[in-house]
Design a protein that fits this description.
It is a single chain. The chain contains 24 helices and 20 strands. With about 650 residues, it is of the alpha/beta class. It folds into two domains: about 260 residues, Rossmann fold (3-Layer(aba) Sandwich); about 325 residues, tm_1862 like domain (pyruvate-formate lyase- activating enzyme). The strands form six sheets. The protein has a nine-stranded mixed beta sheet, sandwiched between helices. Strands 18-19-20 form a three-stranded parallel beta sheet. The protein has a two-stranded antiparallel sheet with strand order 5-6. Strand 1, helix 2 and strand 2 form a beta-alpha-beta unit. Helix 10 runs antiparallel to helix 22.
Length: about 650
Amino acid sequence: MISLAPAAMYGAPMNRLPVLHDGRAQPPAARADSFLPTSAAELRARGWSALDVLLVTGDAYVDHPSFGAAVIGRVLEAQGYKVGIVAQPDWRSTADVLRMGRPRLFVGVTSGAMDSMVNHYTAHKRRRSDDAYTPDAVAGKRPDRATTAYARLCRQAFGATTPIVVGGIEASLRRIAHYDYWDDRVLPSVLVPSGADLLVYGQGEKPVLEIARRLASGEDLCGLVDVPGTALAVPDLALAMLEGRERKTLELPAYEEIALDRRRFAEFSRLYHLEHNAENARILVQRHGRGERARFVVVNEPMAAPSTEELDRIAELPYVREAHPSYGGAHIPALEQIRWSIQILRGCAAGCAFCCITEHQGRDIASRSEASVLRELATLASKESFKGTITDVGGATANMWGMRCTDAEAHAVCRRASCVYPTVCKFFAVDHGPLVDLYEKARKVKGVKHLFVGSGVRYDLAQADTKNGARYLKTLVQHHVSGQLKVAPEHVCEPVLKLMKKPGVSSFERLRKDFERYSREAGKEQYLVPYFISSHPGSSLEQAAELMDYLQDNRWKPQQVQDFMPTPMTLASDMYWSGYHPMTGEPVHVTRDMDEKRMQKALLRWGDPANRPLIEKALRKLGRLKPGERLGPGMRPSRGSPKRRGPAGGPGPRRPRA
């Protein structure tokens, strides 16, 4: 059964939104050792003659709350629907997707936990040799642009009368026209090439349940035009039935217009980046094509984030927490990484320019209850294979658990892109006290020897918490660091940090001092491991060299540096393509030359001797090395070379004494 009770986060309830609940009329829970059917034999073993919903995914089938297809499948199952999963089908034949027959309601398609192009290619557009979401990490088990390929495959298999619904991160971040790094051009909404009937974006549980409920009630597919958190493409705008809706519409610049004009693309980016609040976002309309080939992409307002009660129920569905037995126990790296971790929140209020989490999961934080987290922890600790270590208790940003807007009226009209940058919003409840209490209770769970926080920590948020921020950092450092605390200052040059929407280097230096002090007090030898991004919009070769100076002065030799990869719908990607900051209209320096991207990355990885030729090439280009001159010991220019400058444009920082 599906409740029709309202699920609005603030203010007056929205109509017809499903609430995930544990009502009395639910079917018996699946056995803990059972998976959703993946074959005709498994379908028959359940006594089913047909499915209600077929889910097709680009990942291996892992029945775990961190794998999207498993979550959607279990959520639908809990409401009484018969659900099957086809994982990593052969996209050159319809045989795999047809093996359980035509579903009664719809086919759901996802590329998997990653955009398939990010999964397949590096920032330098080289083909990856492995896939963490595939048994034995074998590459090539999913196609490029998997959402489109699978949707077309299902259309070929099931015909025009079976609804095709696409979702997951690839579809979510390609719901409107977008810059595509791999084709190096603006592409249309994925709805156009895929031919899908509906697209679910963001956190998909409630939109998917609403789609299933209305189709099961006999409503025609053409009436499902108003589900929050969905998008569709129609040949005639009248078919979207926008007249009489409570939400206003915003017409975005047409696809063909922004594909040809980069400044217009930046203006388009500014418009859609302001429409993220489920309470006030307008319905977006964007024309693709002209004449008889025209399609109007309509993006409905976002679905409200799940409540604490809903998130608890999603997390505590009867997941097996293992890969399907058909894989014969093969190693799936993504499962091993999260097997002993617990997700305690969704969403991210930071809105970093290079990150897609806010555009996908939303800015509002959805947090699980303390009781639910502790129940899951006890369940994991009771497993025979558990060795005593929880690898992560977190989410997109580990220390945003329980944080939310405290003013309903302010939230109803808010269009801020970030709750914490450039300063923490006065209505954003920043209190780490409850999280510290949760950590303390979690450490006392029977069988837990070590409980680490592996997710990212927004340290400026802890520093802004005058009541419990210091207590949180002390607890984190002294009890929940596995020897290395990974943090992401990303850069040290203020102009670049401003474009990234990250705190200044002084905030990182403050964290560094606190980390060292708390580690000494605990009698532990621990290390701070900073992560940095090369070639981000705004970062020139000179600023990459300044970052190298900072790393050398602090004796940091990063082994992993993330070279900026533009992914659809992020603010930084839109800067990269347009050359302008969408929010200000000001020009932004962009590094597009692949050779310069390699030089910037090499400067940050100065400790690797293999990078010497690229570093010397970069420093000669900057005038720091004379023609024919070589770097001296420690990858530093010899005496007499031009004086380097520091992150703020002044003299470089001095090396601290040992």
